[in-house]
């Protein structure tokens, strides 16, 4: 049992089990092993957390309309047994892709939303902030240039007044 | 012509079960769609697979299982996507030439995204099955620091 435990914990069986890579027989063996080994179960929980984080980072939000499609299928009030042959037949039909009236769920027809990459959000915020900064800077320099213009005008006027006053000689005696 | 294998067995779903399924969809729908879309790059087909996934999940079956919920969703999403993948029979692995550095990633890609079995990967890459499992472990361990 010690050898098997080492194998499961050190040789990657736990990770393979969690990611669903193992065969059904290996999965059954692993379930049995986990039910008897709390230490392995604890390790499994740790790996699960990091694995969930990994796949959550790669999550892609489905189109909003798909939620209704899922709800409708669930509300058909029956559990349809999963049939691999149904998936395979769908895959074959998809590969042919000749029939425009296919069995695809056209969920985005009545949808008014658009889906963009998540990096658009910080990009949009950055553009918005930069536009505000440039607007404020533009207004500041506009008013500053106006006041400088007025000061310059005043100085010019003072200068021209001084030039028009006749200068008297200092010693007229 | 209908056979026993093709028959749809109608079982009533309780309101509680429907609510739980929708809660699972809310929580893990994006994650499952990300996995499915990576395996089946056609969005329309991927959406069909996603709807099928949550419509055919069995809460009762899962309740008796020790497998964590997220792992269950990941496993089922991968399984359904691989089964629905067009042209899955003629899988080409010629583009995977691992180096020592990227071996864990290559092995994980082959195993998880391409649905290759451990023994198949070992034979393809000319390494031992234990090395394949270790590579998967190394890659999954790296999730925490990624």
TrEMBL record, chain A:
Keywords: Coiled coil, Membrane, Transmembrane, Transmembrane helix. Residues 82-101 are annotated as: Disordered. The chain crosses the membrane at residues 123-143. Gene3D superfamilies: Anti-sigma factor, zinc-finger domain (1.10.10.1320). Residues 23-50 form a coiled coil. This is Uncharacterized protein. It comes from Spirosoma oryzae.
From TrEMBL, chain B:
Gene3D superfamilies: 1.10.1740.10. This is DNA-directed RNA polymerase specialized sigma24 family protein. It comes from Spirosoma oryzae.
